[in-house]
């Protein structure tokens, strides 16, 4: 588990960076949030993507990925260029966002008051650059899925593994942008509730898709998992049954554990699976529905508090999910 922890963190950081920007870009396209919100969090996501790239180069580089026998080495060389392309394409988007004074819902209102349309060359360039960045981000998720798909037990499981990266990015990144958007309402309470309702609905849809994907994946992986568990149990029994030579221990260095001290054992995969269901699916789904209701009633402070909880639980659930998935490496 310790050996695969950098890979887990790299995957989750990629999903978080790409999914957060994708929802931010959609909100920009819909012109329902303020320009200041778009500017601030584009800078935040740009910096986080740069941090993700540096982390990938240090702890999830191509040589490290190639050292794992079960990963698809034909795709490991595309991970860094795809993430770098996503990072670099965020720069022109940010530049055109700075130049476009008509961006966001406030720019739309000013253009309407002046009797002018929101269309401009800068807006087109901004949306095109943001669209290209989104395509690069989706390509990065596809590359990640292709790298890790051999860990699935069947061809259908491999396809579902690739799809899971897109849905996870939508859930993890979407809830992050939704949480920041809810926090923004505390500064601008006059903002319409429509963007928060939309972003919360996106998160709820992503969580439901994750549940359906997990059910299908568990059905596909059921026989293979049972066979692997049987082999593991047989290997364990053989190891226990085989005689083990007693080590020679000197009296001065021998340490005997008292009988009253319990033996600590790691959590089983079943316990981790239930934790993932509770943290990644059940609690976020219930709290997300409550958030949507609170946002509809314009109780933004309470809705933001719920979103904070969903962010923590969704991230914890995704880390558990990826850790369990990579446990077979």
Your description of this structure?
This protein is mostly helical and 329 residues long. It has one domain (5-219, 269-328): Formate dehydrogenase/DMSO reductase fold. The chain is 75% helix and 0% strand. It has 10 helices and no strands. The protein has helices at 5-30, 35-59, 62-66, 79-99, 104-113, 121-148, 155-185, 194-241, 269-296, 300-325. Helix 1 packs across helix 7, helix 7 crosses helix 8 and helix 7 runs antiparallel to helix 10 (300-325). The longest helix has 48 residues, at 194-241. The protein is globular and about 60 Å long. Residues 222-257 and 261-265 have low confidence and may be disordered.
Observed structural traits:
329 residues, mainly alpha, Formate dehydrogenase/DMSO reductase fold, 10 helices
Topology:
Layout: H1 5-30, H2 35-59, H3 62-66, H4 79-99, H5 104-113, H6 121-148, H7 155-185, H8 194-241, H9 269-296, H10 300-325
Helix pairs in contact: 1-2, 1-6, 1-7, 1-10, 2-4, 2-5, 4-6, 6-7, 7-8, 7-10, 8-9, 9-10
